[in-house]
Amino acid sequence: MLRCPFHPKRTRFIGYLVGLAALIGIGLYGQTTLTSGTYTGQSYPGDVIIASGNTVTFSGGTTFAGVNLTLNSSAILNWDQNDVLAGKVVVFNSGANLTAGAGNTLTFDSISTASGDLSIISSNAGASFINQGSLTHSVSFNNGSLYAPTFTNQGAITSTGASSTLFLGNSASELFTNAASGTITADGTNVVINLLGVDNQGTLLAQNNGQLRFSGPNTTAELGNVQVASGGRALLNGTLDNSSATLSAITGGTFELFGGTIDGGTIAALGFTTSGGTVNNASFTGAVTHATSSSVTFSGTTSYTGATATFASAGSVNIGASGTFTVDSASTVSGDLSIASTAAGASFINQGSLTHNVSFNNGSLYAPTFTNQGAITATGASSTLFLGNSASELFTNAASGTITQAGGTISLGSGLFTNLGTIDVQTGTFQAGSNLHDALGGLIKGSGTINGDLFVDGGTLAPGSSIGTLTFTNTDFTTTTASVLQIELSGSSSDQLVFQNPTSVVNIGTGLLDLNLVLLGAPTLSATYNLLSISSGGSGISGYFAGLPNSGDLLTASYLGTPYSFSVSYSTNTIQLATVPEPGMAALLGAGLGWLIVRGMRRRRG
């Protein structure tokens, strides 16, 4: 049997080689662990590991033949050379990062992959990063980053790390392109990919409750093909230049404003969130969803133009200072309405249809200047729609405007409210405040209750819906100029105004209120009709109808061509009408009565 003799010098030499290998980082089994230092023009035969907490620089064409590159916790690898990682598998442990040096380009080829706590970053001038492979941020509760002065994705970038954000881009000055072949996917609950200024020519996808956040700046054209699925969301939280463009629905849903700003253009579909945001000088033309507790500020000149908007519970629109928000005649808005502003110079114009139709939730529509040229309707039971917030506001219900209380309560507040259109109090109590003016052309009607003050400044009062009673409570009622009281009458019934606890004398003016009597049927002979009455409290009624200054004065109205006469009667708390037989009818009645008397006498004689 052959024996290898023991040679002390040979053993020491082998030990020296092992120590030297360890010193320069060469492993014994095709794996090299590198510690802090600059490695220039080196070629490693196997895999490479960057030791935890160490900073290593590759330069001058340093390569490794193995497949695997591992960056241990908090390790840094500075790639200070132009190179392509071909067919490599790169693993990032917590806090590790790979950096491209100034003027250098780092490329991951189409079969290379990277995973873990991704951080491939550079702020060095002229640095470039190109991904053609597959990059996956796969850790939870740790944020990742991918950015460089020039960053191009031609492959796949995916984040699956729950409760983490993968930041793609770091500065608005960077050039970040998702090429036609590129895909970027946020996949999973609480998985966020934040895109800073991306020019998307490929596909962006949020799925399984993942989120894409566009932190801008972007143009609408740069957003490209965006898709959401299975609870995924596309959130705008940067600045979007939508000038001369249309922001449309995306595959599977819509963009949502998430604290960002949209400037100009047309918005065909958009959702709002609790994070708010601002829309400047834009026109909404499609479906608009104000989600629960969401908010948004409309500034500049912004409008709903043929839009269909819905407000979920506590969703709100604020009109910015000096801004004008218009709802055009082709738009409908409904739900738990809240379109309001206290900002200086803000203006709200409604030409469309606004309906507060939820119960048990209050709504608000007001601004320093608010003009209603369309329809405002309240139908929500046990709720109040506030049309006013402060005494300094100016609210005009224009000639074409209608305000209808069909359920719940409408409250006007204390600002100047001028009615040139129609207020229809169909049911419930309408809170008029202290400054409601029914001006020339205005009409106030209905069978509900109006609580608060009313100045009749040339408008028309028409109690009832057909024939009915309009009740005023706690009212200072004053007629200031020539106005109209329209009363419908039929049979033994008529419209009437009833006052409960008026705060002062009910003043119909001295000949200022014109009584317009409309017969819907023939009146009952000898019937008496209460037109105005105080049912409780107050200090009486003063004044008289135009042309009817005294009790006993007559007016005539016709039904189906037959004239009927009525006499007016004024008392402290009541103004009445009574039917008066026509002369021919009086003679006929007299003749009939005489005939009955004669006939009775003949019977007694017989």
Tally of alpha and pi helices: 3
* Global outline: rod-shaped
Which blocks of ≥5 consecutive residues have pLDDT under 50? 1-29, 585-606
Euclidean distance between termini CA atoms: 176 Å
- Which structural category do the helix and sheet elements fall into? mainly beta
Question: What do you see in this structure?
Answer:
The protein is mainly β. It has three domains: 27-186, no CATH class; 257-388, no CATH class; 421-606, no CATH class. Helix content is 7%, strand content 53%. The chain has three helices and 69 strands. The longest helix has 23 residues, at 583-605.
Features:
606 residues, 3 helices, rod-shaped, disordered N terminus
Brief write-up:
With 606 residues, the protein is mainly β.
Write the layout of secondary structure elements.
Blueprint: H1 8-24, E1 31-34, E2 37-40, E3 43-44, E4 47-50, E5 55-59, E6 63-64, E7 68-71, E8 76-80, E9 83-85, E10 89-92, E11 97-100, E12 105-108, E13 113-116, E14 119-121, E15 128-131, E16 134-137, E17 144-147, E18 150-153, E19 156-159, E20 164-168, E21 175-178, E22 183-187, E23 191-195, E24 198-200, E25 203-207, E26 211-214, E27 218-219, H2 220-223, E28 225-229, E29 233-236, E30 239-241, E31 246-247, E32 255-257, E33 261-263, E34 266-272, E35 278-280, E36 283-290, E37 295-299, E38 301-304, E39 308-311, E40 316-319, E41 324-327, E42 332-335, E43 338-340, E44 347-350, E45 353-356, E46 363-366, E47 369-372, E48 375-378, E49 384-386, E50 394-397, E51 402-405, E52 409-411, E53 416-419, E54 422-425, E55 429-439, E56 443-446, E57 449-457, E58 460-463, E59 469-473, E60 477-479, E61 483-491, E62 493-494, E63 496-500, E64 506-523, E65 528-536, E66 541-545, E67 554-559, E68 562-570, E69 574-580, H3 583-605
